[in-house]
Amino acid sequence: MPEGDTIYRAARALQKAIGGKVVTGFDTGLAKLARVNDDAPLVGRTVEKVESRGKWCLIFFSGDLILVTHMLMSGSWHLYRTGEKWWMGRDRMRVVVRTASWEAVGFNIPVAEFHTSRSLERSSQVPKLGPDILSDEFTVEGGAARLAAYGRENPDAEIAVVLLNQRVLAGLGNVYKSEVAFAAGVNPFRAMRTITSREMETMVEVSQRYMKANVVDGAGDGIVTYSGNRRTTHSSNREERLWVYGRQGQECRRCGATVMMRKQGVQARSTYWCPECQPWVGELPAPIGRATVVRRGKIGC
Ligand SMILES: [Zn+2]
């Protein structure tokens, strides 16, 4: 699944190319979109803005029409100069938005719908996203408060599953999930009720820092969170630029212990962690009149 910063970059590139421009052509292979276009043509509208919300890409057209797309595993937006040859076959084209000098082509996009601002607000399909980590308004305090509020309602939820939940915080994907938990020294399987405010703040701060660092223009398509020893990181291999993600069975870059991996959550997403740097913190219910017992130990493999 594309990470939030991939969608962010795609939305930013679209904004730069077609933002503020008048639509000169619109094609789609999706009947539902075609019907809307027949009734309320796209041609002649202006692209007001393109924005990402977590993993959703929203293209706002004048006259209160919003094209909402989600890439899931397979979809992608491409930008071509008018007349330029596409990199993928026409049979995979789902949506084309043309302006005088650009064609924005959505290939293999599995989820694409038109909305008005009201229907978007009411839509249950397009989730109400949590605050976008990459937005200008996002603050560490606000993000940490969001995590804390969710934790109070879902005390048994595992932190790494929560980090992936776009309704809590929008933008983090599966790679960042493991990297952020490592950077904060938090075992990814810990229940929300065991996570301290300080740890939440650290995870949010690291999330924002990593994601901002990775949306710099020309940063390549991989994610970089580890930039320590240059002798071991000159490789462009993605896994050599990360702390734990994809490094199962290898030495932890910080302590030398063996990095572990386990499938986590109902979606069985791979979670990587160092059992030494991210010790298990379990918490037993405190019997009345006695102190809370905090048990420390490692999660077995
Ligand atoms: Zn370690």
UniProtKB/TrEMBL annotation:
Matching entries from InterPro entries are given as: DNA_glyclase_Znf_dom_DNA_BS (IPR015887), FPG_cat (IPR012319), FPG_N (IPR035937), H2TH_FPG (IPR015886), Nei2_N (IPR044090), Ribosomal_uS13-like_H2TH (IPR010979), Znf_DNA_glyclase/AP_lyase (IPR000214)
Which EC numbers does the record give?
4.2.99.18
Q: Which domain of life is it from?
A: Bacteria
Pfam hit, one? Fapy_DNA_glyco
List the GO biological process terms. Answer: base-excision repair
Residue stretches making up the Formamidopyrimidine-DNA glycosylase catalytic domain: 2-95
Quote the PANTHER family the UniProt record gives.
ENDONUCLEASE 8
**Which UniProt keywords are given for this protein, alphabetically ordered?**
DNA damage, DNA repair, DNA-binding, Endonuclease, Glycosidase, Hydrolase, Lyase, Metal-binding, Multifunctional enzyme, Nuclease, Zinc, Zinc-finger
Family note: Belongs to the FPG family.
Q: Which GO terms describe its molecular function?
A: class I DNA-(apurinic or apyrimidinic site) endonuclease activity; damaged DNA binding; oxidized pyrimidine nucleobase lesion DNA N-glycosylase activity; zinc ion binding
Stretches assigned to the FPG-type domain: 243-279
Extract the CDD domains matched here. Answer: AcNei2_N
Q: What's its top-level EC category? A: lyase
User: Catalytic activity, per the record?
Assistant: 2'-deoxyribonucleotide-(2'-deoxyribose 5'-phosphate)-2'-deoxyribonucleotide-DNA = a 3'-end 2'-deoxyribonucleotide-(2,3-dehydro-2,3-deoxyribose 5'-phosphate)-DNA + a 5'-end 5'-phospho-2'-deoxyribonucleoside-DNA + H(+)
Q: What name does this protein carry?
A: DNA-(apurinic or apyrimidinic site) lyase
